[in-house]
Design brief:
single chain; Arc Repressor Mutant, subunit A; 2 strands; globular
Length: 212
């Protein structure tokens, strides 16, 4: 059973923090909101100086301002205390940290294949045994991910979906679509992972890189 549902306004503010450079449609899709209502709320938040809209080449999206990041973290902290979920999220983050190291190692091995001549050689994916170990590592992480996400979802509804999205991406990898390991333009294992990581850090107010 999912836990406390965050308000629509809090989700709209939080969306760009988790998703990065995000459109109203992406935020709406992530949290099950109406896209037009999300757009209206973003405009309201923009008028308060908490979000800003930018365009680069053919893409456009919303991102948090410095003031918006502070407001987002303030709201998240208030929500944690209101629900009494701080300890649950702290424990989930503590469980996530070693899992994160395993995931980072798997992604590095997918990108790099050291040789005796070049310890920084790019993985050309000609060594099936090497890549197979990466696949098995990602599957092992999938099996352990529920120890992080299930308590989170039980406390805060907005954490729902991470495990299912990771599994969906991994299923595509196992169906001979390896780009779903780390491609940034799709909902790949790596995309889902960095969003979960950012969600945890934001919720606990931990700066990225501080043992997180």
């Amino acid at each position: 059973m999912a836990g406390h549902p965050s308000t629509a306004e809090d989700l709209v503010l939080h969306g760009p923090r988790v998703l990065g450079f995000a459109s109203a449609h992406r935020i709406a899709a992530r949290y099950g909101l109406n896209a037009d209502e999300v757009e209206d709320r973003l405009l309201e938040l923009g008028a308060k100086g908490w979000v800003s809209h930018s365009r680069f080449a053919d893409t456009s999206g919303w991102h948090l301002t410095d003031a918006g990041r502070k407001e987002d973290e303030r709201r998240l902290a208030t929500e944690l205390d209101l629900v009494g979920a701080r300890e649950t999220v702290v424990v989930a983050h503590r469980t996530f940290v070693p899992l994160n190291r395993s995931f980072q190692s798997a992604c590095t091995d997918w990108q790099m294949r050291p040789t005796t001549r070049d310890p920084m050689a790019v993985n050309d994916h000609s060594d099936w045994g090497w890549d197979e170990r990466v696949f098995r590592a990602l599957e092992s992480i999938e099996r352990r991910l529920s120890t992080v996400t299930e308590p989170l979802v039980g406390a805060l509804q907005r954490f729902d979906g991470y495990a299912a999205r990771y599994s969906a991406a991994l299923a595509k990898v196992n169906a001979a679509q390896p780009r779903w390991i780390a491609a940034p333009e799709v909902d790949s294992c790596h995309t889902v992972w960095i969003q979960l990581h950012e969600d945890l850090l934001a919720t606990l107010g931990i700066p990225r890189g501080d043992n997180g």
